[in-house]
Design goal:
alpha+beta, seven-stranded mixed sheet, five-stranded mixed sheet, binds glycyl-adenosine-5'-phosphate
Length: about 450
């Protein structure tokens, strides 16, 4: 029963995403491509708002973090040095009968295939998750390159470039948002685990003996970021990695987890990567990646505290957390209670009826607000239906031009969550939105 409810919630969210233009199946016209998704008009806007919210918090408003936008394709030796060629693997099990493929950890000691029930599972074998392609016209081993499986390495190999050009001193960080690719054995749960996704990563370079202090600092920053994004606190928790869970580069790792309809799952990792990455790159290239300034007795390789969040996973979290079925609103009862800070549409503007000069005023209000905010104009159907459409799209405010507007230049503003309507002067609408959107 619990499983059915889980699936129901996800199914309803997936269909809302399609109906309202948040997320579409990739290549749908051709029958779709497994685990690949396209963001529609509202999804693209929401994703952009989440990235801006992260970028502002993690670099634009800080003096100690610089931004970077490194290439997806990197020198193939980077991935040998980082350990990804040898160690970025998942143990995989095949069923010889039905050819299904599983991550060994998902089978938890079962000896029969969950798909066909036959005891014809292979022994686990290591499967490297990196996508390989070829650079240039010749498809041989010397032309092989990888699509990056994390954005972090682009930051490490630019450590000197950023330090020297920005004149930052430790502790300082480098932040980056970009696509990453993993040939996941079992992608799934909509946009939760996909083969192409976007990461929002920040690497903070510190003196080695300050690692515990900065790990705690960034854990707190990242926790608060999710609260500011409007995620319910009771749906979030920390998971500390046990020794046998730690990635090959980490000394300590904590995941921010969210309670999805399919269970508690990782949203973001905060890792103490020690001097692992810079030491390996220094050894492989012979370039001196040590740090020195007059405050320290000798040169050292900085330790790194990493915060690594998934943009698509955050977007899924935001949608699930905001998704409410409110029967008190009648048949059309779905509301996306997105924080106004990240909602794709900040407001909708309606003329109450298509006559008596109301559309002309409504259009002017719409065009004026549009200069600053993403707003939507809708004159179609009853006001109730228009409210319902905007509730489902997650639009926090609906502005209606009615008979009184011509007399005193006021409009009603209806709040999506409380459904309360208040009257405001047209001239004050921009400030009204600014106060709430931040
Ligand atoms: N640089 C460290 C690193 O990449 P990770 O825990 O493998 O760490 C960080 O990934 C975050 O990237 C995850 O917490 C998740 O949000 C996101 N992520 C990882 N694999 C993903 C996938 N297949 N689909 C969607 N998001 C993914």
């Amino acid at each position: 029963m619990a499983k059915k409810n889980t699936n129901d919630t996800m199914d309803r969210l997936v269909s809302l995403c399609k109906r309202r233009g948040y997320v579409f199946q990739s290549s749908e016209l051709y029958g779709g491509l497994n685990s690949c998704w396209d963001y529609g008009p509202l999804g693209a806007e929401l994703k952009r708002n989440i990235k801006t919210f992260w970028w502002d918090a993690m670099t634009a408003r800080r003096d100690d973090v610089e931004g970077l936008d490194a290439a997806i394709l990197m020198h193939p030796d980077v991935w040998k040095t980082s350990g990804h060629v040898d160690e970025f693997t998942d143990p995989m099990v095949d069923c010889k009968t039905c050819k299904s493929r599983f991550r060994a950890e998902d089978l938890e000691g079962r000896d029969k295939c969950p798909t066909c029930g036959n005891a014809t599972l292979t022994e686990p074998r290591q499967f490297n998750l990196m996508f390989k392609t070829f650079m240039g016209p010749v498809e041989d081993a010397t032309a092989a390159v990888y699509l990056r499986p994390e954005t972090a390495q682009g930051i490490y190999v630019n450590f000197l470039n950023v330090k020297n050009s920005s004149r930052q001193k430790v502790p300082f960080g480098i932040a980056q948002i970009g696509k990453a690719f993993r040939n996941e054995i079992t992608p799934g749960n909509f946009i939760f685990r996909t083969r192409e996704f976007e990461q929002m990563e920040m690497q903070y370079f510190i003196p080695p003996n300050e690692d515990e202090k900065w790990l705690e600092y960034w854990r707190e920053q990242r926790w608060n970021w999710y609260l500011e994004l409007g995620i319910r606190k009771e749906k979030l928790r920390w998971h500390e990695h046990a020794k046998d869970e730690l990635a090959h580069y980490a000394k300590a790792a904590y995941d921010v987890e969210y309670e999805f309809p399919f269970g508690w799952k990782e949203l973001e990792g905060v890792h103490n990567r020690t001097d692992f990455d810079l030491t390996r790159h220094q050894e492989a290239t012979g370039k001196d990646l040590k740090y020195f300034d007059e405050r320290f007795p000798e040169k050292f390789i900085p330790y790194i505290i990493e915060t690594s969040a998934g943009c698509d996973r955050t977007l899924l979290t935001v949608l699930i957390d905001a998704y409410v079925e409110d029967k008190s609103r009648g048949d059309k009862s779905t509301v996306l209670k997105l924080s106004p800070k990240i909602a794709p549409l900040k407001a909708a503007v309606f003329p109450l009826v298509k006559k008596d000069g109301m559309p002309e005023i409504a259009e002017k209000v719409y065009h004026d607000l549009k200069k600053k905010y993403k707003v939507f104009y809708d004159a179609g159907g009853s006001v109730g239906r228009r409210y319902a459409r905007m509730d489902e799209a997650g639009t926090p405010y609906c502005i209606t031009i009615d008979g009184q507007t011509k007399e005193d230049d006021t409009v009603t503003v209806r709040d999506r969550d409380s459904m309360e309507q208040t009257r405001h002067k047209i001239a004050e609408l921009s400030d009204f939105l600014a106060e709430r959107i931040g």
